[in-house]
Amino acid sequence: MSLKLKTRVRNVTGVQFVGLLVFLLLVYAAFLLSSENKIIFHPSRYPDGFWNPASQGVLAQDIYFTAEDGVKLHGWFIPAENAVATLLWFHGNAGNISHRLDNIQRLVRLNLNVFIFDYRGYGRSEGVPSEAGIYKDSQAAYDAVLRLDGVSVDTLFLFGRSLGGICAVQTAMNWPAKGLLLESVFTNSSDMARKIFPLIPLGWAMKSKLDAVSKVPHLRLPKLFLHGTDDEIVPYDMGRKLFDAAAEPKTFYSIAGAGHNDTYVLGGDEYFNALNQFITETLKNSHIKG
Fold first, then answer.
1. CA-CA distance, 278 to 147, in Å (whole number)?
2. Which of 21, 82, 134, 143 is deepest in the core (most CB within 10 A)?
3. What is the dotted CATH code of the domain comprising 44-289?
4. 85, 79, 78, 83: which is closest to 282 by C-alpha?
5. Which residues does the chain have with pLDDT short of 70?
6. For the chain, what are the domain ranges?
């Protein structure tokens, strides 16, 4: 075989290889996009979890309510003695409310009522999760908590973890609250897709935008951002990017050495002191201004 022919064969083979690689990447991208909701949402349905909160010292009241599209939802209301405020808790993309019992117990000790609910498809809530659906669920949860005895919008704080932070931001865009707490929250789905799949530009094609970074500049209520420095899922720098985009007043609290799911464990008393200080000062400042 001549040198020119060998070179041509090598070139054709190289082009074919690149073409095959591009084809395989496109097929993989199409598969990812078709499975978008399954990648984003990882619900645990009842009875998976720990559904006897009293056995762990959490006196939870079952609250059933309905989203605007008729989906029936479930949550727990855990009242605190001498409560100074109420947290409406938007949890992350995995598990269900029963997996947060230990965290709930510690928050109630701060004299905080906690209302935590499951999005559609999680826990005892009906339906199948989607971006539009969880926004409807968040609205319904906001309405439900304000119907409870002893709960007032004047002492209502929205607390979102990870994906739940997106829901908390969306809720704050539409309804009043005293303050907003965002823990381990990402900027938007495009940035997360770029982080998880760096070789495949999926962001532009994703139906779910899950966008917080374009909304926080418009939120004027007090905000506390919390993020573990060793977060393996939502990078610490992404949490800082979200904070930098936010309007004042705002505070950023770093949890040294914490990953994505152990912030309150590794943060310990200092973590809960930061939460307590933010809520106490927010209530105090609003009282002075009033």
1. 25
2. 134
3. 3.40.50.1820
4. 85
5. 1-35, 197, 199-206, 287-290
6. 1-34, 44-289
